[in-house]
Amino acid sequence: QCALCEAGKFVIESLRQPRACQECVAGRFSPEGATECVSCSPGRFSAASQSATCDLCPPGKYTELLDQSECVQCEPGTFAKNASSIACVACEAGRFASSRGMSSCTACPNKTGAPKEY
Fold first, then answer.
1. How many Å apart are CA 100 and CA 7, to the nearest integer?
2. What number of other Cβ atoms are within 10 A of residue 94's Cβ?
3. How far is it, in rounded angstroms, from Cα 91 to Cα 99?
4. Hey, what long-range contacts does 87-93 have (CB within 8 A, 24 or more apart)?
5. For residue 86, with 0-12 CB atoms within 10 Å meaning exposed, 13-18 middle and 19 or more buried, which class applies?
6. What pLDDT, in 10s, does the model give residues 94-111?
7. Mean pLDDT, the chain, as a whole number?
8. pTM
9. Is 3 exposed, middle or buried (0-12, 13-18, 19+ CB in 10 A)?
10. Contacts of 1 (CB under 8 A, 6+ apart)
11. Which of 36-40, 68-72, 89-93, 113-117 has the lowest mean pLDDT?
12. Sign of CA dihedral 7, 11, 17, 18
């Protein structure tokens, strides 16, 4: 009788252990019955091993590479408005983001500009 590997694991076959299930590492995932783990795409991550899916990076964070186990916070002066961002965007003239992990920029007070350095 053949059994499927549960989600977050994949089938491996070897001489020592035919049809064994092995865990996917953080940054990769697999649905039930998978024969291999799949990379989390840019803008997504899986923080733990044995993931059945990848999560979206929340606003204010991003990943630009495959296989990520966490998202990176946007630096001051930049933001990521949407979930699943692959990069942060610089605030436009007259707006600023004073801390890390911002999902929007704030308008500068009247008659002032954004600070030159954060």
1. 34
2. 11
3. 12
4. 87/62, 88/62
5. middle
6. 999 999 999 999 999 876
7. 89
8. 0.80
9. exposed
10. none
11. 113-117
12. positive
Close Cβ partners of 100 (under 8 Å, ≥ 6 residues apart): 73, 74, 75, 76
> Do 50 and 8 contact (CB within 8 A), yes or no?
yes
Each residue's pLDDT tens digit, 26-61: 999 998 888 889 999 999 999 999 999 999 999 999
CB 43 within 8 A of CB 85: yes
What sign results for the dihedral spanned by CA atoms 50, 52, 56, 58?
Answer: negative
Of all residues in the chain, what percent carry a pLDDT higher than 90? 68
Amino acid, res. 90: A
Q: Of 32, 27, 38, 88, nearest to 59 (Cα)?
A: 88
In the block, which residue shows the tokens 């704030």? 106
pLDDT at 117 over 70: no
Structure tokens at 42: 């840019």
Instruction: Indicate the residue type of 38.
Output: V
